[in-house]
Amino acid sequence: MGIVVVAAGRGERAGASKDGPKQYRTIGGRPVIVHTLEKFASWELACHIVVVIHPDDEALFAKVAGLVQSGVPIDAVHGGATRQQSVLVGLRHLRGNDLSHVLIHDAVRPFFDHALLDRIAGALLAGVPAVLPAMPVADTLKRADLDGTVLDTVSRSHLYAAQTPQSFAFEPILAAHEKAAAANLADFTDDAAIAEWAGIPVRIVEGLADNAKLTVKRDIAMADSRLSGQTLPDVRTGNGYDVHQLEAGDGVTLCGVFIPHDQKLKGHSDADVALHALTDALLATCGAGDIGDHFPPSDPQWKGAPSRIFIEHAAKIVRERGGTIMNADVSLIAEAPKVGPHRDEMRSKLSEFLGITIDRCSVKATTNETIGFVGRREGIAAIATATVVYRSI
């Protein structure tokens, strides 16, 4: 996939600095743009990066480019007078590289992660032509007149705050930008708006609470404080435990994987004891109650429901509260069926449900040495641990 990083802005709202525009200012000992470029350069699906810079910033960019560790080509081109024009320059530069998709990102959004990029890529590779990472609007919205008098309260239902990288099938978004330029339309606020205007369907995927744009001087100071270790990292660990009774049946579902067996787990939903325990572990990291608070077993709508609904809901709550899921570990306690042959598929499912890489997902199993209800094959138990890092600024 191609990457266009837009870095031609002047950043007047961030104030003057000897380091130049805000994308070249230092946070955590390195320029903002270096953090951004290295995040893309270390992503396994990135194959070509083009950085669109201001003509006056050639020396600045040449200096920081040497700090970027990258195994993929990184080119610099001069941008235009507006962001829209700069993006078109970047897209034109990538033309001819046989790219299927392109991600367009603001240089001054350094706090994204590979999990977000993987969510975007998953949608693109599934055939979605345009993908917009976004977060539901959490603040109450007011409409006011010119003198600041409130006219009414705007419902925030179905409203989202757009982020980048906004990502597209390459040829359609290039054609849409060319068409807008030919029509002298220059008032689009982002690339998704151009796609909408061109009739390209845009799909929202869950963004990242940390993925904020560094706009004013205070944003840069807070980012520097965060990366310089002046604040303690907010690392939280949650634990979850669940058990379900076994009864005669044709198989059990564990970590989202159905395993044929001569018994099944009894429960209101699909009784996936592993996902239930992990759901509680995630909710525990932000004090959001437990699975029963969100999905009461007395509610008939959850009868037979797949437990991926529960785990994805918990992951969404964590992200909305500023958390980044770092690790998920599940221990299954059962005499049967054998978990080992299905472990990798279970880890893959956890990776999919949580939006994290598979190396951050662990599934283990042990027996109870024929002791107790587990030993008598009356039930299966699960213990889960989740590690989440929350924003400290």
TrEMBL record:
Keywords: Isoprene biosynthesis, Lyase, Metal-binding, Multifunctional enzyme, Nucleotidyltransferase, Transferase. It catalyses: 4-CDP-2-C-methyl-D-erythritol 2-phosphate = 2-C-methyl-D-erythritol 2,4-cyclic diphosphate + CMP; 2-C-methyl-D-erythritol 4-phosphate + CTP + H(+) = 4-CDP-2-C-methyl-D-erythritol + diphosphate. Coiled coil: none annotated. Residues 1-235 are annotated as: 2-C-methyl-D-erythritol 4-phosphate cytidylyltransferase. A divalent metal cation binds at D242, H244, H276. 4-CDP-2-C-methyl-D-erythritol 2-phosphate binds at D242, V243, H244, H268, S269, D290, I291, G292, T366, T367, N368, E369, F373, R376. One of its GO terms (molecular function) is metal ion binding. The keyword Nucleotidyltransferase applies. The record marks R13, K22, H268, T367 as: Transition state stabilizer. PANTHER family: 2-C-METHYL-D-ERYTHRITOL 2,4-CYCLODIPHOSPHATE SYNTHASE, CHLOROPLASTIC. This is Bifunctional enzyme IspD/IspF. It comes from Rhizobium grahamii CCGE 502. The gene is ispDF.
